[in-house]
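This part of the workshop introduces the protein records we will be handling. Getting from the letters to the tokens is the skill we practise here. The record below serves as our worked example for the rest of this section.

…
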Amino acid sequence: MSLPAVPASLPRSISTFIARSKELATADPIISYFCRLFAVEQILTKSLHTTDDEIAGFAMGLLDNIESFKKDSSAELLEVIQDKESSIAYVLNFANKIFATGLMAIQEQRVSKQTAMSLLASANFFELLQLWKEDAERVEELEDVSKKSKYAKFHAARILKAYKNGEDPNEYVPPRNEFEPTEESTDAVSSQTENKDEEKDIPVVEPEGSNSDNFGLPSVPTTISQSTSPQGPPQFIDDEPEPPKESLEELTPFSLPEPPKSFPVDSTDDLTLPETPKSEPSTVSQPTTQPVKKVEKKIDINEIMESSEVYSKAQKHAKFAISAMNYEDKATAVKELEQALELLAKLRE
């Protein structure tokens, strides 16, 4: 299932991870999957889906894509993404590998624009560890993730600035204790890198399980055989989309046909005769009761359509809640469930 189009209103801090996901879709499906998951988590945590309809639709499409990916994935791949410890080890190892390539280039004074791109990418991959908030402190303590991320952003900005000014970025001599860029340097990085559109074609280093021993986590498989079977429908395929506004207008003319005009006035002459068959009053009375039935039908249709919209919106909130629970975001899960319950309560009024 292809990724939905990214809305222009989606913040760059989130759309960057969609770009990373596309870059790694074939090279590393696991990291690609976590990039999409992180993007959805950011949308829900920041409640962007409640203020922008395009972002809400994008989030729904992204959730469908994620569920479809899980459904069509191999057992080996699922073994990694469904186990928290394996997932953390895999993401951390991948980020460290990309970071190490940039660090070595800096130390050997052979950096290029591609080095800057790799460093920016490694900072993004370190950020994926925030998917497991409860373990983030433990990971940080063992791996200095924040320090590595600041280092990567600092040198990425330095390298790109040097090229922009026509300077040689390799004239920089890295100090021994290079892992401590100043706060001013870190702030400069944010402004330098936020609007760069050159974050493409990251060098991909296939993760191995060798470095996970220091982290105290189980090793992850070095190769994952991704399923090549056609992708099936999402698990939430039974969710009905919100009915379009036009649907009610289209139904109204067909709610009940008008009775034929010739029916109540079958023979005006016969109405003046003293002798009238007993069955005839029933035929004459039908036109008077027919409009009443038509009004009742219209009301029923309106109520059905309104109920359908309420159910559809409640299902969306429930779906967001389930996604939030998948990455243990309790606050967002509770918030979305409460909104779903509020909508359902309206049907009881």
Q: What stands out?
A: Residues 1 and 9 are 23 Å apart (CA to CA). The mean pLDDT is 71. The chain has twelve helices and no strands. The first helix runs from residue 12 to 23.
